[in-house]
Amino acid sequence: MDLETLLSICLGLGLAAACGFRVFVPLLAVSLAAHTGHLEIGDSFHWLAGTPALVTLAIATVLEIGGYYIPWLDNLLDSVAGPAAVVAGVITTASVVTGLDPMLKWTLAVIAGGGVAGSIQAVTTGLRGASTLSTAGLGNFLVATLEWVAATAFALLALVLPIVAFLLLVAMAFFVARRLLRAPATPAAT
């Protein structure tokens, strides 16, 4: 595997991670970067570089970010965002991975890209649920802000420094796994 392929895989997985925080932010970043010629995407994804996709994704991004600041809508959006994040993770990964056999590329996109996006979305949904329960939804404003900032930062980091984004993703996975393994077991009800 050459360096360009490795970088494209790191880029794809970094963008997929951003999809776990917000579905449309990384898609908009890919669309904007491809539209301006700063990112080469796969032939079957040139639609992402077009003006209609760019405008549509910009509107969707604003609506998604804004929707998470509406108290009852944020939890409703989480129920739709789970599957949508997986699909977005697959699309972003497949659109930027180059130098691989198509079967391997799509396998990587579905398993790794969709898996990363879905895992992060599951964690953020859990955080929002805990925030809703513990603060009666008042803390969800902070969770929503952290999510879109993380999505934007991860997408930009993946586009500029894909290996760093990948290493950050690995560190996050290690941290979450470690926390889950250290979580005290709940006593069984008798």
Account of the protein in words:
With about 190 residues, this protein is an all-alpha fold. It has one domain (about 5-170). It is built from seven helices and no strands. The chain has helices spanning about 5-20, 25-35, 50-65, 70-95, 100-135, 140-160, 160-180. α1 (about 5-20) runs antiparallel to α6 (about 140-160), α1 (about 5-20) crosses α7 (about 160-180) and α4 (about 70-95) packs antiparallel against α5. It is globular. The termini are far apart. The model has no long low-confidence stretch (mean pLDDT about 90).
Please outline the major beta sheet.
none
The average pLDDT score comes to: 92
Outline, from the CA principal axes? globular
Q: What is the CA-based Rg, rounded? A: 17 Å
> Uncertain spans, ≥5 residues at pLDDT below 50?
none
Number of helices: 7
Helix content: over 70%
Number of strands: 0
Strand content: under 5%
Straight-line N-to-C gap: 55 Å
Q: What layout of secondary structure does this protein have?
A:
Elements: H1 3-21, H2 24-35, H3 51-67, H4 71-96, H5 102-135, H6 140-160, H7 162-182
Helix pairs in contact: 1-2, 1-4, 1-5, 1-6, 1-7, 2-3, 2-6, 4-5, 5-6, 6-7
Considering the chains and any ligands shown, give keywords for the structure:
globular; mainly alpha; 190 residues; 79% helix
Quick structural gist:
The chain has 190 residues and is mainly α. It has helices spanning 3-21, 24-35, 51-67, 71-96, 102-135, 140-160, 162-182.
